[in-house]
Specification:
The protein has 157 residues and is of the alpha+beta class. 26% of the residues lie in helices and 31% in strands.
Length: 157
């Protein structure tokens, strides 16, 4: 099966739904194996409630959840949002680009002017993915300042 043959729909859903939590758990396990940390401490599924943030899930035509990404306000005044919990089930890895396109569209609709994110340098596949998606390396921000193992990215919208 080629990823280009897969019909995918991407929609905003609750970050606390069964499928959303299952995808986030799969991400945590994968990140733990790659980096030694699940990254889960930096995102709460309930943190999007009452904000301009959102959680997107990619689904196959059969309604199988195969990917997700969260976006939450980081700097309200500057309208900067932070990308969190990006994950695609391994056999559907080509879907990530579609998730980012939808992420950018949703973020623009919410009035955000830029997206920022962090990943670990050791997660080379993620680093290369974000560069391919038009994100540029930026100075580490917030809790990532002074962290040699972290690399931060930004993309204007």
């Amino acid at each position: 099966m080629k990823n280009s043959d897969i019909v995918i729909s991407i929609q905003a859903e609750s970050a606390t739904s069964y499928d959303a939590l299952a995808l986030q758990q799969a991400l945590s396990l994968e990140l733990s194996a790659i980096t030694g940390s699940s990254g889960a401490q930096r995102f709460s599924a309930t943190s999007l409630a009452g904000s301009d943030g959102f959680f997107l899930i990619a689904r196959t035509a059969e309604h199988k959840a195969v990917g997700c990404v969260a976006c939450r306000p980081l700097d309200i005044q500057a309208r900067i949002a932070e990308v969190k919990r990006m994950y695609v089930v391994p056999e559907y890895r080509g879907v990530g680009t579609s998730l980012v396109v939808s992420l950018v569209d949703h973020a623009r609709l919410q009035g955000f002017t830029a997206l920022w994110l962090e990943t670990r340098k050791v997660n080379e596949r993620a680093v290369q993915f974000w560069l391919r998606q038009g994100f540029q390396v930026r100075e580490n921000y917030g809790p990532y300042q002074g962290r040699e193992d972290a690399v931060c990215f930004a993309r204007p919208l």
